[in-house]
Amino acid sequence: MGAAFCFTTMQEPLIYLQYQVQIEPGTDAADVLIAELSLLGIEGFEEGADQLTASGKKEEIDAAAVEYLLKNQGLTFTVAEVAQQNWNALWESSFEPVLIEDFAAVRASFHAPVTTVLHELIITPKMSFGTGHHATTWLMVKEMSTLDFSGKSVFDFGTGTGVLAILAAKLGATHVFAIDNDSWSIDNAIENVSVNEVLGIELQLADQIPAGTTYPVLLANINKHVIMAHLAAMKAITEKGGTWLLSGLLTTDEADVRTAVEAIGLQWQHTLHKDGWISMRFTDIGV
């Protein structure tokens, strides 16, 4: 089965607000700030040694709340309007390949091939999230290296660049249904799926989980707020004995998420940690 695309979109370039925030090196300040800003409409992040670049669609950002948050924390920042098409130039100037041990490499199309890993993922991001640079994507890829995808169907909740859906297909999944609530992410994922020449990926613009089909594997690299709000829908599409891989979560989120997920009939398996972020693995026990 070839890659199935529910639609493509053609639209006028959007305007994004881009915040350049000075952060203290060697702390988890950026990680905490990312979690807070993601709840205010920010959807793209790039971390530097002492600076965090945070971007999102102008029409969706609560700009007053963002500025209040940054000022209340005593942070120095600038904000500018950035046209959608300028995002690639920003990334091409700073995006370097990422290695997830000897299992996978994530690189952009303008990089040389990486031949020292089992799986190479060509991901050229636009405004989408998920390049391997952020700890949560790294953790999800690491976790996926230990899971058998052969012949399975997969649901990818909040696909972003499509990086996890593409990896699942490379690992043998026969069908990956990936959704995102941002049309720019879907367009970007369509391009990345094509470049990687993988089969069986279906992409759909949606902010709710479609019911009716069940999956043995569910991937969700979003954030605590979204995951907690959709637990019932996630449970409804999970096969008995199925596996959840969750991330987009801070270390401080672990207890709340574990309690909530276990309450609906899944069993915690383990938690991986990286740079103040976590991924969690659960198994559905059919309760």
Notes on the structure:
- This protein is of the alpha/beta class.
- It folds into two domains: 15-91, Alpha-Beta Plaits; 135-284, Vaccinia Virus protein VP39 (Rossmann fold), CATH 3.40.50.150.
- Helices cover 28% and strands 32% of the residues.
- Helix 6 links the parallel strand 10 (175-180) and strand 11 (201-205).
In short:
This protein has helices spanning 29-37, 63-72, 87-92, 135-144, 163-170, 183-196, 224-229, 231-236, 254-263, and strands at residues 4-5, 15-22, 44-47, 51-57, 77-83, 98-100, 104-107, 119-122, 153-157, 175-180, 201-205, 215-221, 238-250, 266-274, 277-284. It has 287 residues and is an alpha/beta fold. It folds into 2 domains: 15-91, Alpha-Beta Plaits, CATH 3.30.70; 135-284, Rossmann fold (3-Layer(aba) Sandwich), CATH 3.40.50.150.
